[in-house]
Amino acid sequence: MRTHDSVSIxxxxxxxxxxxxxxxxxxxxYMCEVxxxxxxxxxxxxxxxxxxxxDPLPAVVGVTYELCAGIVDKPGLSIEEIxxxxxxxxxxxxxxxxxxxKITSYRSGVGxxxxxxxxxxxxxxxxxxxxxxxxxxEEGELIQVVEIPLEDSMKFAFDESLPKTPGVVLGFVxxxxxxxxxxxKK
Length: 186
What we know:
This protein is of the alpha+beta class. It contains four helices and seven strands, in the order E-E-H-E-E-H-E-E-E-H-H. Strands 1, 2, 3, 4, 5, 6 and 7 form a seven-stranded mixed beta sheet that branches. It starts with 5 loop residues before the first strand and ends in an 8-residue tail after the last helix.
């Protein structure tokens, strides 16, 4: 199985003092919820003949909030250039690679792939918005851009009723420690 390293970007819009994240449907999350709510569907079934789901769950149970992200799969581009492409494709902001700040790299999926994941920080303004974002539908991406106000970010990060990736929590906590103390006081 070929695996790829990945990159994500914590985006902060300084014009509106909010984080820009994405919300998208993840089939694996949906199937975990199906199994949790209807385990009988997966019991005593072979791979060719899964049980029928009598009362399907709404698709929203498979939706997660995430940092803008992508896989590192373009050999001619630096990881920073790939990050900038993802910001433009998913969120609609044009960010120069030189404006990215590396937060950290770590191993993700250690029980499955052991890939390296790198998180960057990018500040954007409303003037840097050049498109709608939303990903690439032809690649199966159905992405909604969501803004999280700075003042609500820590509540959002730790609200377990809002499904999110660990990168969101890590990014928001990193921001509070490294960027927020230097923001102008209201």
